[in-house]
Write a structure and sequence with these properties.
Strands 1-3-2 form a three-stranded antiparallel beta sheet. With 81 residues, it is an alpha+beta fold. 11% of the residues are buried. It is globular and about 35 Å long.
Length: 81
């Protein structure tokens, strides 16, 4: 697993700006970033890939929101394992 920084996330998703990523986070259609330093964040690569696959598969915004919720739960499960 690797953590993608903002430029890589934008390249992977096709988003053109930081704001569009954070708007998707606010809307619940993209996972929240994880802290990787005092002033830096990133996203687990598998989460970005899962969201992209859902979009490519034509899932609705509600289905993607459910996926994002499951991905957040899985983050917690990884830490507790």
């Amino acid at each position: 697993m690797s953590i993608l920084r903002m430029p890589a996330v934008k390249a992977e998703t096709g988003h053109r700006s930081h704001a569009s990523i954070y708007n998707a986070v606010k809307a619940g259609t993209f996972t929240k970033p994880v802290c990787i330093g005092a002033r830096s964040v990133g996203w687990p690569d598998y989460e970005v890939k899962a969201i992209n696959q859902a979009r490519i598969a034509g899932q609705t915004a509600d289905q993607i929101k459910d996926l994002v919720a499951r991905l957040h739960v899985n983050r917690t499960a990884l830490v507790q394992a």
